[in-house]
Amino acid sequence: MTTDARSRYLDLLMGCLTREVFLDQEVRNIDLARWPGGDDIRSILKEQGWRLVEPSGDPAVRSVGNDWPPTAETMAGTARLRNTLDCCRKVIEDDVPGDFMETGVWRGGNTILMRAVLAAYDDADRQVWVADSFEGLPAGDGDRFPADDGIDFSVFPQLAVSADDVRANFARYDLLDERVRFLEGWFADTLPTAPIQQLSVLRLDGDLYQSTIEALDALYPKLAVGGYVIVDDYGAWESCREAVTDYRRDHGIDDEIIPVDWTGAYWRRTR
20 to 30 A Cα–Cα from 65, which one of 13, 23, 158, 162? Predict the structure, then answer.
């Protein structure tokens, strides 16, 4: 694939994953009571299964991943997807060894992009690891992790996407194959024993202190020098940011943390 074709493919894929290229078609239901006309007309429409909709996608909001899109494979937005792409591309160009991985994948958008990068660059060696409970997030365990006290994302059913649904999303883009490796279950159960030899891009999207620190404890030692850590929730959630701060302090990591947008951040491992 030529450089121009590669860039056009990956740019188009990102627009599809966020649905930014289809925002003019994205709608949401609104109350039929807002339909102009009398109650009789509204009753007939309701009986016949009609619905009233209005445009729902805001390009400025979607580009920085500040909404929950109804059909997109990612809520990260273009800026954070671009960061994933740039990090994956850089380790390939710099010949940094290791697989790509995301912990906390929702509908799979970032990992789909990771697999697309390997296809676009004809990389035949790396794998993409897709780690998630596929049951949503747990309630914060404030006794073990005080930073998570009072946080309960388990009340949001929108965050629970099954592994089969994520596989179907990979297949939608013809990117599901044996090099896409799923780790299904809570991080404490799956990550410490995962058969991963080495990583070059590690993307964390666990929101909680617990999810973030468990991923770092199990996986950062496997990150190659020259590899990248991406933290999706660094700016959005103090619990996540505190886990990153604690891990870096305890392990003497002083590589510069670089912001991506209002929440995403990353650093490159130098030693």
Answer: 162
State the residue for tokens 């666990």: 206
Q: Which residue range(s) make up the domain with 262?
A: 77-268
pLDDT tens, 65-118?
887 788 899 999 999 999 999 999 999 999 999 999 999 999 999 999 999 999
**CA 176, CA 201: separation in Å to the nearest integer?**
19
Tell me which amino acid residue 99 is: D
Cβ-contact 257, 213 below 8 angstroms: no
| Tokens 């799956």, residue located | 190
pLDDT tens for each residue of 103-115: 999 999 999 999 9
Sole residue written with tokens 């930073």: 147
Which residues are paired to 229 by β-bridges?
202, 267
186's tokens: 């809570």
Calpha distance 190→9 (Å, rounded): 33
Q: State the pairing for strand pair 99-103/199-204.
A: parallel
Q: What is the pTM of this model?
A: 0.89
Helix (H, G, I), strand (E, B) or coil at 46: helix
Computed from CA positions of residues 61, 65, 67, 72, in that sequence, does the dihedral angle turn out positive or negative? Answer: positive
C-alpha to C-alpha distance for 193 and 170, rounded to whole angstroms: 25
pLDDT at res. 53 = 47
Are 12 and 129 part of one and the same domain? no
Task: Using DSSP bridges, classify how beta strands 52-55 and 27-30 pair: parallel, antiparallel or unpaired.
Answer: antiparallel
